[in-house]
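Bug report (template v2)

What were you trying to do?
Predict the complex of my protein with guanosine-5'-monophosphate.

What happened?
Run completed; filing so the output is reviewed.

Input:
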Amino acid sequence: MSPVTRAGVGAILFTADEIAEAVSGLAERLARDLPSEPIVLVGVLKGALFLTADLARALPPQVDARLDYLAVSSYAGARSAGEVRLVQDVSLDLAGKHVVIVEDIVDTGLTLQYLRGHLGRRKPASLRACALLDKPYRRSVDVTLEYAGFACPDAFIVGYGLDYQELYRNLPYLAKLDVRASEG
Ligand code: 5GP
């Protein structure tokens, strides 16, 4: 049976298995770069909710990892509003910790640029960024993304935490969304 069951959800870009493999790869690279330091994974809600949880569990058990979340709003529907607003901040003390920002997707880079500034002021020992999906050709600012799972095509993507108007986050795969068909 086809897993595509929702209006507007088009081609599957990455299956659940491919996502799991990419997340393992990201965890391996993180563990290699930060083998014995205290890490704080800071997941950006809500899109990186699943990625943060899966990434944390894919790290080798000897990695001293803590979890925190923050929430930003920067997107209205399928188009970037261009302005990033902090809706919920982290609760852990990040001073002296190796902080990894965990984002669902980096598009213009504005959100990541804002978060690097915001979290950088907490005096972490280091600050890195990890995203499942990257649209490098869409950048409007020059921002560093150390770890990316997949380069993705210029399409609106949903699933595995990514939404359109709060829908589709629960899909276990990543798919293109035809916004007009989803509203039809
Ligand atoms: P940026 O600030 O890099 O332009 O955008 C980052 C945020 O925009 C992401 O965290 C995500 O919430 C949203 N975004 C960018 N591209 C897409 C996409 O293709 N699909 C979905 N669902 N959200 C996106």
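What did the reviewer find?
Residues 47, 74-75, 80, 103-112, 156-158, 162-164 surround guanosine-5'-monophosphate (CB under 6 Å). Strands lie at 9-14, 39-45, 65-76, 79-88, 98-106, 126-134, 147-151, 157-158, 174-177.
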